[in-house]
Amino acid sequence: MKTTTPLGTALIIACLASVVIPAGVWGADAPAQNQPPPQATRPTPPTRLPNAPGMPAFIAVGAKPGEAGVLRGAPGMNPPADADGDFLIGPDYVRAPELTVPEGVPQGKVQQFSMDSRDSKFYNPGIARDVPFGTVDPSNPKTVIVETHPIDYKRIVTVYIPAQYVTGTAAPFIVVHDGPPMGRPDMGIPHVLDNLIAQHRVPAMIVIMVSHGGGDAQGHERGREYDTMSGKYAEFIEAEVLPLVEKNYGVTLTKDPEGRATMGTSSGGSAALIMAWYHPELYHRVLTYSGTYVNQQWPFDPATPDGAWDFHAKLIPQSERKPIRLWMEAGDRDLLNPNVMRDGMHDWVEANNRMAAVLKAKGYHYQYVFALNAGHGDGAVKQQTLPEALEWLWKDYSPGKAR
User: Fold this and answer.
1) CA end-to-end span of the chain, whole Å?
2) What global pTM score does this model have?
3) CA distance 368 to 291
4) Can you give the pLDDT at residue 147?
5) What's the confidence (pLDDT) of residue 330?
6) Peptide bond into 125 cis (omega under 30)
7) Homologous superfamily of domain range 2-38+60-393
8) pLDDT confidence of 22, banded at 50, 70, 90?
9) Domains of the chain: which residue ranges?
10) For 115-153, how does the pLDDT look when each residue is reduced to its tens digit (9 = 90+)?
11) Apex CA 258: angle with CA 401 and CA 362, to 5°?
């Protein structure tokens, strides 16, 4: 099934009128498309102070001369698009003008198609939990015992093709996790890219927004796809999603890893880095909001016993630097122990702080944005920062250029 949606101002107003953003690119851990939402509610996370012990030495964006000790950013201001390091923004946010396309700016096309899980060689059948959540394994407190059952599901793929794409040329692209449902395409990234491409701030790239197989975290298909520390999900995208995008829309996607990026929020963020980490020959550019760099992998894997927490605990520190460029964000009220796990590896702020520290120590190109007055996958933060984040992500891109 394929549908085509014109880009219009009314859609972006509908999508972005509220700080509480619908599921999809702008959302965080969306309720399952194939399962009812969990019954348990998460406790309100505490506010983590930016000058607390162990926090990076943040540069407050927009602080005036003589205000070096003021830990707050100026409304609407983001870090420079060519600067690496640790930055602080907020507590007040301004919606980026790039989210509205002015008259006369060329607008790309947004189209959708569906994939049946029964046709997949990677994720057939899907899985779902039998109960809202599992129990901690008494013999291994780093994991949980979860009862699951098989499911079939439809995966929706939403594709943005810029007006500047020239048929037959190998286009750069970005894979975005937690893609929107059929008939309700998320217009945030397309509108931003219409503007950025027209202003020559980023290359004319194709966007491939891929929905997950349902549910969230341990025992659900989304958790299996996004939280597993392996190259499997990147291999699934390469073998089953990208060929259909090329076939359905007559486009050619670049094979150059410098022209391939991944992006996501929460577990979609950790999945974005997982794709590039295990397959750096495929992806070099990663963008994450509230990345789930915590211990959420299931089933348990002794090779990475701490799940994505192992990124900053051992994988990055103990490995040669990879050709990965990483933009990342966390909010001061980001998640803390959102489920039954109490293993000391479920603080999203600490995890992202640790990521920034090890990336800096290993000499990676990274930009870490810490957002005041912001929760998990915060919509207001995304509305302000996305254009700058994408511009930073694609800085110095040139087809065929080695890093």
Assistant:
1) 39
2) 0.88
3) 11
4) 83
5) 98
6) yes
7) Alpha/Beta hydrolase fold, catalytic domain (3.40.50.1820)
8) very low
9) 2-38+60-393
10) 998 999 999 998 788 887 778 888 887 888 888 888 898
11) 95
